[in-house]
Amino acid sequence: TQLLEQSPQFLSIQEGENLTVYCNSSSVFSSLQWYRQEPGEGPVLLVTVVTGGEVKKLKRLTFQFGDARKDSSLHITAAQPGDTGLYLCAGLSGNTPLVFGKGTRLSVIA
Amino acid sequence: KAGVTQTPRYLIKTRGQQVTLSCSPISGHRSVSWYQQTPGQGLQFLFEYFSETQRNKGNFPGRFSGRQFSNSRSEMNVSTLELGDSALYLCASSLRGGEGYGYTFGSGTRLTVV
């Protein structure tokens, strides 16, 4: 069974601070996806990374896929209250189902 | 274009009853996956349907079942409800599912078993 471990589980920071969220596995994934979920809603896809070492940027969010395709990180620069939410990483390999980590709950305080 | 529609949004059922949840995927999408989300376990995969066939199945008891219709709409059924079945049930729509394809989630059905 492929497992994804996310850390930290909870994060509370002040507006303007930087943060990094980690997603680790002992398994290799063909691609990693990051989602953000707000209360009462389903997860929304932020990005997909497919190549080992790949870095993608989405405004103040930077996503990196590890060289061995077993881990990924999400870095947020100058966090804003609107970044508050549950951040989920999910791995894909072949036609196996999307496997999710348990998420990092981020709270950005104004 | 319309997103993924899940109905109902909220549901309260009594232990021992059964329940049917519905998911209408994005037009043209043929893959529908179902997930159970709880605070302790996160998102756990239930099953995936592609072109009316179950392609993958998670580790849930046989009380959990699903199906997909020719128009790609999907239903999941839970029989003999238990308190532990209380959760947010999410469905995800994808063009084909698997590598290279994105997933769009619905807003979920919040099931409470009392």
Detailed description of the structure:
- The complex is a heterodimer of chains A (110) and B (114).
- Chain A is mainly β and 110 residues long.
- Helix content of chain A is 0%, strand content 53%.
- Chain A contains no helices and eleven strands.
- In chain A, the strands form two sheets. In chain A, strands 2, 4, 5, 9, 10 and 11 form a six-stranded mixed β-sheet that branches. In chain A, strands 1-3-8-7-6 form a five-stranded antiparallel β-sheet, with no helix packed on it.
- The termini of chain A are far apart.
- The mean pLDDT of chain A is 94.
- Chain B is mostly beta strands.
- In chain B, 0% of the residues lie in helices and 53% in strands.
- Chain B has no helices and eleven strands.
- Chain B has strands spanning 5-7, 10-13, 19-24, 31-38, 42-50, 53-57, 64-68, 74-78, 87-94, 104-105, 109-113.
- In chain B, strands 2, 4, 5, 6, 9, 10 and 11 form a seven-stranded mixed β-sheet that branches. A four-stranded antiparallel β-sheet of chain B has the order 1-3-8-7, with no helix packed on it.
- The radius of gyration of chain B is 13 Å and the shape is globular.
- The relative contact order of chain B is 0.32.
- Chain A binds chain B through residues 30-31, 33, 35, 40-45, 48, 50, 88, 90, 92-103, and chain B through 4, 33, 35, 41-45, 48, 55-56, 58, 90, 92, 97-100, 102-108, 110.
Q: How are the SSEs ordered, and which strands pair?
A:
The complex is a heterodimer of chains A (110) and B (114).
Chain A: E1 5-7, E2 10-14, E3 19-24, E4 31-37, E5 44-49, E6 55-58, E7 61-65, E8 71-76, E9 85-92, E10 99-100, E11 104-109
Parallel strand pairs in A: 2-11
Antiparallel strand pairs in A: 1-3, 3-8, 4-5, 4-9, 6-7, 7-8, 9-10, 9-11
Chain B: E1 5-7, E2 10-13, E3 19-24, E4 31-38, E5 42-50, E6 53-57, E7 64-68, E8 74-78, E9 87-94, E10 104-105, E11 109-113
Parallel strand pairs in B: 2-11
Antiparallel strand pairs in B: 1-3, 3-8, 4-5, 4-9, 5-6, 7-8, 9-10, 9-11
